[in-house]
Amino acid sequence: MSTIIEKPEAAAKLAAAPAFNREGLIFEHSKKGRRGYSLPALDVPRRELSDLLPAELRRDTIDDECEVSEVDVIRHFTRLSKLNVSIDAGLYPLGSCTMKHNPRINEEIARIGGFAQSHPMQPEDQVQGNLELLWNLEQSLKEILGMPRVTLQPVAGAHRELTGILMIHKALATGGNARKYILIPDSAHGTNPASANFAGYGIRELKSNSRGTLDLDLLEKQVDEDVAALMITVPNTLGVFEDQITAIAGILHRKGAYLYCDGANLNSFVGIARPGDMGIDVIHSNLHKTFSTPHGGGGPGAGPVGVSERLIPFLPTPTIEKGDDGSFFLDYNHAASIGRVRAFNGNFGVLVRALTYMRSMGPTGLRRVAQLAVLNANYIRARLKAAYHLPYDAPSLHEVVFSDRNQTSRDVHTLDIAKRLMDYGFHPPTIYFPLIVAGALMIEPTETEPKEELDAFCDAMLAIATECEERPELVRSAPHTTPVRRLDEARAARQPILRWKP
Amino acid sequence: MRYIPNASEDIREMLAVVGVDSIDRLFETIPDAVKLDRLLDLPGPWSEIEQRRWFNGLARKNRTAVDHDSFLGAGAYSHFQPACVDQLLLRSEFLTSYTPYQPEVSQGTLQSIFEYQTHQCLLTGLDVANASLYDGSTALVEAVLLAERVSRNRKKVVVAQSVHPHYRDTVTTYVQNLGLEVVEVPWGPDGRIDPEQLRDACTDDVMAVAVQSPNFLGVIEDYASIASIADGVKATKIAVIAEASSLGLLSPPGAHGFDVAVGEGQAWGIAPQFGGPYVGFMVVRDVLKRHMPGRLVGETVDVDGRRAFVLTLATREQHIRRGKATSNICTNEALIALAANIYLSLMGREGLREVAVQCVQKAAYLRQQLATTGLAEIPFSGPIYNEFTVRTSRPASEVLAAFAEQKILGGVAIGEFFPELQNDFLVAVTEMNTREQMDRYVEVLRGVVTKEAR
Ligand SMILES: Cc1ncc(COP(=O)(O)O)c(C=O)c1O
Q1: Nearest CA in chain A to B27
Q2: How much is the pTM?
C-alpha cells in the first residue's frame, strides 16, 4: 500500500482510473471454448488439408493463443484504455511532440470506403481519387514549406531524416565526393544523429552558444570539405528561432554543403515564414505534429520531405505527377533517385487526415495556429518563470524549457516534478531533453489549449514549486493517485520479461 | 476557428501577462527578411459540410472492394475487419495519447503492447517481439541491419528474388551507403527459391539469408531446407511474412530454426488504405534481443509491488544511444499494433486458424477451376496459401482491365517487376471471397480469353 495518498482537487480527473485490481492480460482471460468472432461457413467443397498442404508446412494449433468472447475483448480494452491519459482528456504538454487536438472529421474522412478499401497495387486509372488527393497535398505542402517539390513517402520523422540525408549523399556523390560528416548541434533530437549514421555518415557535434543557438564563427570553422550538411532544428529544441538562418545557409552553401532542417517544430511558424525562403535545402514536416493527425500511443505518423531545386532529381520513387490530360500518375522514371524508401505509397491514411486538417484551417487558420501556439507557450513561460529556472532566456516561440535548478537544493528533481504533475491530472512535459539543459522540463502547450487549462496547469506547477519547498518528500514520492506508482525500471531491464508465458 | 479555443478576450488577458501588446511582437526573433508578407495560397477554411463533399467526390473516383469483387494481394490483403477493432481504436485514451514514456499514466498502451508482443511470439514461434516497425519493407531492412550487427564484419546478404519487389527495393535504398552487398537468388520451376543457386550464393562471407513465405509468387517456401543451407555458413536466417494471416495455419519460422521473423501485419484486421498505415513486426531469438531495433515493453512491479509494464532495454534506442543506436526509429505504428492486438485477441486460437483454412480452401478452389477449364496456366507448381500466379495468352494488364469493366479487381500484374512475366498476374483469395464471386471470375475470364481467340 502507498504510504501517502494525498490528492489535490485537480486530481479528480484521474480518480476515475481504477487504482487497484488492475486488469489482467488478455491471455489470462482465456477460457476454452470462448469465441469472439463469426465467419461464414465455407462455401466451397472442403478438401483434406493434407491434400492441399504437406504436413511439414502446417502447424496443428497456435499453442497458448487466447480464446475469448467479444464481451471479454471490449471490456478488456476499455479497461486498459482507462489507464491512459490523453489529449482528449486535457493538456498534454510534451515539448517537441506537438500534442494538439485531433479533429474527428479527419478520422471520418480517412474511413470513407473509397479511401480505406483502396489497394496499393491497383493500376493508376483505378485510383485517380487517391492520386488527386496526394497531388493536392503535395501542392499544399510546397506552398506551406516554400519548397519546389515534396515527397510524401516517408512515414515518420526519423524515416524522413534518413530520406533527406540519403538525397544529400546521392547529390554529393554524383558531384564526385559524398563527403564524410554531418554537423549536428548538441541540442538536436536523438533521431538526427541516428539517421545520419544509417545514411552512411559520421557525426560532428556542434556546441550551442549561450542563447542556445549556433555560433557562426564556430560553424564557419567546422564546415570544411568533409562536411556534407548541417542538420538543424528550426526553431531549435529550446523553442528559439535561429535568427541567423540565412547566414548559416550561406556558410554551408559556400562550402558546397547542404542545409538540412528538422521541421518537427513547424507548428511555431506555419503561415508566418517558410523554410524555402531561408535557404534551407531539405525540410521535413511531421504531419503527426503540425497537421493534427493522432499520435495513437506512439504512431503512426507521416513525414513528408520538401527539397530545394538541386535535390529534386534525387527524390525517392515514385513521385506523383499530373499528366497533360489532367489525369494523375506515379512516376518511377527518375534515373538519379535514391530509390524507394518503403513499400507502396507512404502512410496514405495519415496523409488523408493531414489534408483534411489543412482544408479545415485554410491559410488564415494555419497562421492562427502558429500565433496561438506561441502565445500559449509564452503565457506559461510568463506565469512560471519566477518559480522555475529558465536556463536560456532568449525569446522562445512555441515551447519553453525550464530546469529544476531552483528545486535541486531541496533534493527534488525534474523527474519528481513530472511525476507529481500526474497527481494534479496532467501529463508531464518532456523531461531531460534537450540534453544541453540539465534537468530539462520542456513544455509545449500547442494552440488548442484554452486559457483555463493553461491556468490550471500553471497553478499546478506553482503549487508543486511550493510543495518542493514545504513538503519535498511528497513530491519525491509522487505520483500517489495513478493506476500504478513508480516502477522498478532497473528490474525490467535486468531480468527482461518481454512476453506472457502460461 | 473551431480547433483554437482562445478568442479575443483570452488573448488580451494573456498578452497582458506576457507583457507585450500584440502577438506579432512574439515573432520578432524571426527576421523580417524571411517573414511571409502574405497569406499562404491555399484553399479553405472549409466547413465539415464542404470537407465531406470534396473528399467523398475524390473517393468516388476510386475503384475499390466497396463495390467490386476484389482478388488483390501482393502484400496487402482484403480480410475481415471486425467492427470491434475500429470502435476500440477510436477510444480517446488510445487514439490521442503519446508514446508511453511516462508509465504511471500509460499502462493501457504499455500493457497492450506487451500483449501484442506475446501474440507475435506465439504466431512466429520465436522469443522476443518489438513494439512495431513502420511496415513489412522497413522491417526487412531492420532485420538485415540487425544481422550485420551480429555478423562480425560480414557484408553480404542473400535475398530471394521472390521477396516482395518493394521490400527488396527498400533494402537496396537503405543499405546504399553502408557497404553491404545484396545478392539475389532466383526461383526454380516450382516457384520456390532454387536450392542449388542458394547453395552457390551462400559463401562464407554471407551474414544473412532472407526468404519470404508465402513468397511474392504465392508459393510457400521450404524453411527447413533453406535453414540447413544457411546454417552451413552460419548466416542469420530471416523469414519475411507479407501475408500475416498465413501464420494461422503454416508452420512458423521459429519451428525451423529461423533467427528472425519480420513482416507486415496488415492482414490482422487493418484496412488496405492504399498502403498505410500498416504495422511492421519483428520477432527474434532470445539471444538477439539486445540488438533489436525499436521499442520493447517489459513487465516489472511498482513501488507497491503491483504488476506494471514499462518501456525497457532502451539503451539500444536513439534517444539514449543517439548516433550508435540500433535503429533511428522513434515514432512507430503503435495504434496499428493495438488494432492487431485487438484483432488477434478476438479471433484467437480458433479464429486465426479458421481464417487461414478458409483462405487455403478457397484459393485451392479457384486455382483448380482456372487450371481445369484451361483458361489459364498455373506457371508455378509449388504449394500455395491464399495467392497464386496465373498466366494467360494475353498481357496481364489487358486481362485485368477487362475484369475491372465487370467490377472485378482481378489481380496484380507482375510484369512491371519481372519483365519476362508480362502475361502473369497474382490472384489472392481470402475468407472475404464467395464461391459465387469465384465462379463469376472464371466466367469473366472465359469471356476475356475467348474474345481474344475470335
Ligand atoms: C525535433 C524532433 N526531431 C525528430 C523527431 C522524430 O520524429 P519521429 O518520432 O516522427 O520519428 C522528433 C519527435 O519525436 C522531434 O521532436
Answers
A1: A397
A2: 0.97
In angstroms, the separation between the Cα of residue A469 and the nearest Cα of chain B is 24
**Looking at beta carbons, which residues of chain B come within 8 Å of A114?**
56, 58-62, 64, 66
CB B57: neighbour CB atoms within 10 A? 12
SS (H, E, C) A4-44: CCCCCHHHHHHHCCCCCCCCCCHHHHCCCCCCCCCCCCCCC
Q: Give distance in angstroms: CA of B328 to centre of ligand 1.
A: 10
CA–CA separation, B312 vs A496, rounded Å? 8
pLDDT in tens, A299-322: 999 999 999 999 999 999 999 999
Q: Check pLDDT > 80 for residue B220.
A: yes
Of B93, B121, B164, the CB nearest to A82: B93
Contact state of B78 with A43 under an 8 Å Cβ cutoff: no
Please list every protein residue whose CB sits less than 6 Å from any atom of ligand 1: A 96, 156-158, 189, 191, 233, 237, 262, 264, 286, 301, 303; B 330-331
Q: How many C-alpha atoms does A171 have within 13 Å on its Cβ side?
A: 23
Q: Tell which atom from ligand 1 comes closest to the C-alpha of A301.
A: 10
Q: Let me know if domain A364-494 sits in CATH 3.30.1700.10.
A: no
| Residue at which a domain ends, from B289, B324, B344 | B344
Q: What is the average pLDDT across A282-289?
A: 94
- Is B370 buried (19+), middle (13-18) or exposed (0-12) by CB count in 10 A? buried
- Report the CATH fold assignment for A105-360: Aspartate Aminotransferase; domain 2 (3.40.640)
The residue whose CA is least distant from atom 13 of ligand 1 is A97
Q: How far is A163 from chain B (nearest CA, A)?
A: 9
> CA angle, corner B112, sides to B109 and B117, nearest 5?
125
Of B344, B371, B395, which residue is a domain's last? B344
SS (H, E, C) A140-194: HHHHHHCCCEEECCCCCHHHHHHHHHHHHHHHHHHCCCCCCEEEEECCCCCHHHH
Per-residue pLDDT, A7: 54
Q: Please give the C-alpha separations between residue A349 and each of A315, A488, B272, B280, B372, in angstroms, as whole numbers.
A: 22, 38, 10, 16, 41
Domain ranges of chain A: 105-360, 364-494
pLDDT averaged over every residue in chain A: 95
A134-157 average pLDDT score: 98
Distance in Å, CA B3 to ligand 1 centroid: 23
pLDDT class for A9, splitting at 50, 70, 90? low
DSSP B96-143: T-----SGGGBHHHHHHHHHHHHHHHHHHT-SEE-S-BS-HHHHHHHH
Residues B77 and B87 in one domain: no
**Per-residue pLDDT at A13 exceeds 70:** no
Residues B331 and B374 in one domain: no
Q: What's the pLDDT band for B434 if we cut at 50, 70, 90?
A: very high
Report the gap between the CA of B454 and the closest CA in chain A (Å): 27
Q: What is the pLDDT of residues B150-160, one digit of tens each?
A: 998 999 999 99
Q: What is the mean pLDDT of residues A163-169?
A: 98
pLDDT value of position A170: 98
Q: What is the DSSP string of A428-440?
A: --EES-STTSTTE
**pLDDT tens digit string along A349-395?**
999 999 999 999 999 999 999 999 999 999 999 999 999 999 999 99
CB of A502 within 8 Å of a chain B CB? The answer is no
Rounded to two decimals, the ipTM of the complex is 0.97
pLDDT recorded at residue A17: 44
Average pLDDT over residues A62-67: 97
Q: Is A299 on the interface with B (CB under 8 A)?
A: yes
Inter-chain CB proximity B115 and A418 less than 8 Å: no
Confidence at A4, pLDDT banded by 50, 70, 90: very low
For residues B51 and A304, give the distance between their C-alpha atoms in angstroms, rounded to a whole number.
22
